[in-house]
Amino acid sequence: MRKASSMNDLHGISPGRTAACLILVELAEAPDRELQTLVDHHATRLGLDERDRRLAAALALAVLRHASYLDLQYRPFLRIAPTQLKPPVRVLLRLAAAQRFLFERIPPHAIVHETVELGRRVFRLREGELRFLNAVARKIVSQEQPREPEARDPVRYLSARWSVPEFLVRLFLRKYGEAPTRELLATLGDEPVTTLRVNILKCSARELIERLQRHQIQASPCPELPSAVVLPDPSLISRAVATPEFRDGFFYVQDCASQFVAHVVMPQAGERILDLCAAPGGKTTHLAELAGGQVQVVATDQDAERLELVRENVARLGSPNVEIWDYERVRAVAEQQAQAFDAVLVDAPCSALGTIRRHPEIRWRITPAHLARFARVQEEVLDLAARLVGPGGRMVYATCSPMDTENAEVVLRFLERHPEFAVAPPSAERAQESVGIRSVATEAAARG
Which pLDDT belongs to residue 235? Predict the structure, then answer.
């Protein structure tokens, strides 16, 4: 790919569309990058105002959530497969299709013009490539209705219609059946609820809502968790974290399901609890808050760089009685068979497929090999945790994946290797009752 133009060359082109193009091309060339990180980077680099930042994020999300479906819209106009196109060309055609069929009130001529100008001035495409872009973009916008995939093969149809890799569709069909899988896939483009966890050691949910309103940030109580508040728009996160309240540790940005995990652990005063996969620190700090600072929490993580994020969040939130250990120190304690903790939380490394709504780029990153590798890592971490739980203690295993290969199957194999443990669902049920949530994607085990 040719070097992109400088910002001085981009006068007259939509900054939001420019940022979206750059974000999507970077993700195409480096799938392990995080969407939000790239949005933040290019918003700063291009000096985007709030409106253009939202546009860039919306366009990038739309393309990532509907990539296969968008490819379907221009595939008939190509002599080659979409996968053979250069990343910038494919991104520009997907953006043209997204603006035509997923967004309203964008004139067709404006879509064509910006598609070509982005190719010319952002990616410096050759004249032949620009003529190709112009011709295909014109055909895209000339369609009155979007094309639908053929329905003969359920796997191929669902994969193309909802832009999910075929191997994931097969796994969903095997787990849920066809009708529930169709319903599930149809929701993957929905906007996720954006929640903030209130630091209950510093304020209440009502007080945080009032404080945010002073900064013209609307928030409302979370119906599922009394210690959380809901933002009506994900774009408000950037404004929320720029407030003094964030700097002073009044809240932490954390999904509702993620907040529930600490409730399952149910920290009790006087306990010693280990958070074995702690980065970036959301659950570590939550455990300290739930016990009113009356527990000793030890946090560690295999990734030393990300462990620094735990230190930063513990300091910002003022979480009491939290110690940060390096991973080798925890291994050394385990080697001594110390059984040093009343509870161990294993928020295990996983595919994160349960977060596709918020992170749609994940679906294009994960392969069957990734799932197998994560399962091996999860078993290794659980075996380490087992040596650290004291008699009568408990271990909570949690992932943000719906896959049995990362959840039930891992737990069953663990129980075969460690018959001294047993699944203890009543504790999870009590935790659910305490916060009013009816479902949980965790397994709690107790050492006999």
Answer: 80
Q: Which of 375, 356, 448 is nearest to 414 (CA)?
A: 375
From the list 353, 336, 414, 416, the residue with the least C-alpha distance to 381 is 414
The pLDDT assigned to 400 comes to 93
The two structure tokens encoding residue 291: 């016990």
Q: Is 400 a catalytic residue?
A: yes
Q: What is 67-113 written as a DSSP string? A: HHHHHHHHGGG-SS-GGGS-HHHHHHHHHHHHHHHTSSS--HHHHHH
Cβ(221)–Cβ(197) below 8 Å: no
| Cβ burial, residue 339 (10 Å; 0-12/13-18/19+) | middle
Alpha helices by DSSP H, listed for 280-439, are: 282-290, 304-317, 327-335, 368-386, 408-417, 425-435
Task: Give the tens place of pLDDT for each residue, 261-280.
Answer: 999 999 999 999 999 999 99
- Single-letter residue type at 321: N
Backbone angles phi, psi at 196, to 5 degrees: -115, 135
Q: What rounded mean pLDDT belongs to the chain? A: 91
Spatial neighbors of 84 by CB under 8 A, at least 6 apart, are: none
- The phi, psi pair for 278, rounded to 5°, reads -80, -30
H helix intervals, 102-153: 108-121, 127-142
pLDDT at residue 440 greater than cutoff 50? no
SS3 344: strand
Q: Are 74 and 93 in contact (CB under 8 A)?
A: yes
pTM of structure: 0.88
Instruction: Give me the count of residues in the chain.
Output: 448
Question: What pLDDT, on a 0 to 100 scale, did the predictor assign at position 10?
Answer: 63
Cβ-based neighbour number of residue 185 at 10 Å: 19
Question: What are 397's strand-pairing partners?
Answer: 346, 443
Q: 352 and 401 in contact (C-beta within 8 Å)?
A: yes
Please indicate whether residue 183 or residue 105 has the higher confidence score (pLDDT): 183
Q: Of these residues, 21, 222, 277, 400, which one is catalytic?
A: 400
User: What are the structure tokens assigned to 207, written together?
Assistant: 């007080």
Its sign, for the CA torsion 26, 254, 284, 200, is positive
Question: Is the model's pLDDT at 431 over the cut of 70?
Answer: no
Buried b or exposed e, range 411-435, using 16+ CB within 10 angstroms:
beebbeebeebebbeebbeebbeeb
Rounded mean pLDDT of 331-347? 92
> Minimal CA–CA distance to 359: which of 36, 41, 20, 57?
36
- Can you read off the two tokens belonging to residue 402? 């719906």
The token pair that represents 359 in the structure block: 């992170």
Order of strands across the sheet that contains 251-253? 220-221, 228-231, 194-198, 251-253
